[in-house]
């Protein structure tokens, strides 16, 4: 049932006129009253009427792209590609362009929900969520509820690099992180490595779990005992910091798999500061094949994800310029890229 302005007024125990003043911001309202009204809006998930052009078409020309960290090339590449597709001439109604807005959550689950609420209130034409999701049942349920309300209102929802959500009608482009990670570890095993450490991402992220599952599957299939695993952030400083813990637990490691290429750079720096050579003493591998990977010294062995292609495709699907995948989800393959940072172990 559609929530009305009168419903909000009743919940906040104010007049409909007061609710209108709070939402429009065009008349002074006491702070306590404003807070009560806004709380009622959130509790009822009320969506104010947008401008006349939005009402006529059910949705606006706004497209929201949610990322965890716009400074991270993983997200920046996808967001840039999606924004390019969305802003193409003639993409909007009557030949106009769509306005793509990048929403940087900082990995904060509450900020993610806030952005979804704001996009709902603006009657966004589409919402694209990029990257892995937080593995928290309560948060996933809240996100699913928000996305369900968006799709009911006519908003297209695209998950790019994110696993599907139960009960949400969304086009899903999922990276095959498990298979990519498994092939990477299989390659290290083929070189002769048997003491392999793993620098993982945050424990509560789907991307972290899927890549770690692929790594462990390769070890199990080869009958090789799992080496130490340490968790950290998806950034270079974290890779540097946790390498000390990794080596203290297993100083005889001959290879290290990093959660992504940015983390791998930190691992390489920490190893060099300990007087170890790459790959002479320790082989290092990353994931994603970010642009700097080929220019690292030595160039990183990694797993390539087609980030730009996936982002552009997500943008086209969000516009309705490309049909969503027939099978849900559409799995995007990962490709092993062998470079100079890996070699057979010494001895």
Summarize the structure.
With 347 residues, this protein is an alpha/beta fold. The chain is built from twelve helices and twelve strands. Helix 5 (73-86) links the parallel strand 1 (62-67) and strand 2.
Structural notes for this entry:
- The chain has 347 residues and is of the alpha/beta class.
- Among the domains are: 1-46, lambda repressor-like DNA-binding domains (434 Repressor (Amino-terminal Domain), Orthogonal Bundle), CATH 1.10.260.40; 177-306, Rossmann fold.
- It contains twelve helices and twelve strands.
- The protein has helices at residues 5-12, 16-24, 31-44, 52-57, 73-86, 109-121, 137-152, 177-191, 206-222, 236-249, 261-273, 307-319, and strands at 62-67, 99-104, 126-130, 156-160, 171-175, 196-200, 229-231, 255-258, 283-285, 302-304, 330-332, 335-337.
- A six-stranded parallel β-sheet has the order 2-1-3-4-5-11, sandwiched between helices. Strands 7-6-8-9 form a four-stranded parallel β-sheet, sandwiched between helices.
- Helix 5 (73-86) links the parallel strand 1 and strand 2.
- Helix 1 packs across helix 3, helix 5 (73-86) packs parallel to helix 12 and helix 8 (177-191) runs parallel beside helix 9 (206-222).
- The longest helix is centred in the middle third of the chain and has 17 residues, at 206-222.
- The chain is elongated, with a radius of gyration of 24 Å.
- The N and C termini lie far apart (71 Å).
- Mean pLDDT is 89; it is low at 50-58.
């Amino acid at each position: 049932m559609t929530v009305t302005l009168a419903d909000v007024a009743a919940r906040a125990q104010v007049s409909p006129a007061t609710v209108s003043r709070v939402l429009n911001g065009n008349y002074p309202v006491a702070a306590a009253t404003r807070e009560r009204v806004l709380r009622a809006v959130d509790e009822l998930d009320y969506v104010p009427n947008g401008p006349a052009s939005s009402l006529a078409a059910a949705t606006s020309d706004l497209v929201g792209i949610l990322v965890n960290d716009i400074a991270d090339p993983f997200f920046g590449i996808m967001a840039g590609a999606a924004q390019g597709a969305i802003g193409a001439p003639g993409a909007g109604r009557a030949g106009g362009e769509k306005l793509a807005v990048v929403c940087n959550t900082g990995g904060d689950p509450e900020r993610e929900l806030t952005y979804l609420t704001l996009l709902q209130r603006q009657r966004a034409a589409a919402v694209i969520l990029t990257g892995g999701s937080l593995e928290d049942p309560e948060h996933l349920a809240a996100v699913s509820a928000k996305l369900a309300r968006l799709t009911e209102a006519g908003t297209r929802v695209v998950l790019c690099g994110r696993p599907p959500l139960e009960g949400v009608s969304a086009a899903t482009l999922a990276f095959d992180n498990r298979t990519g990670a498994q092939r990477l570890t299989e390659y290290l095993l083929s070189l002769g490595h048997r003491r392999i450490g793993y620098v993982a991402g945050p424990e509560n992220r789907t991307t972290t779990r899927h890549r770690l599952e692929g790594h462990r599957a390769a070890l199990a299939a080869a009958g090789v005992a799992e080496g130490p695993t340490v968790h950290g952030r998806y950034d270079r400083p974290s890779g540097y910091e946790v390498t000390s813990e990794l080596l203290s637990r297993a100083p005889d490691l001959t290879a290290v798999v990093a959660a992504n290429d940015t983390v791998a750079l930190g691992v390489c720096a920490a190893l060099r500061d300990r007087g170890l050579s790459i790959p002479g003493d320790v082989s290092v591998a990353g994931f994603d094949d970010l642009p700097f990977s080929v220019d690292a010294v030595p160039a990183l062995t990694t797993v390539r994800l087609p980030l730009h292609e996936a982002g552009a495709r997500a943008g086209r699907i969000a516009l309705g310029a490309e049909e969503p995948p027939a099978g849900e989800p559409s799995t995007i393959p990962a490709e092993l890229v062998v470079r100079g940072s890996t070699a057979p172990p010494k001895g």
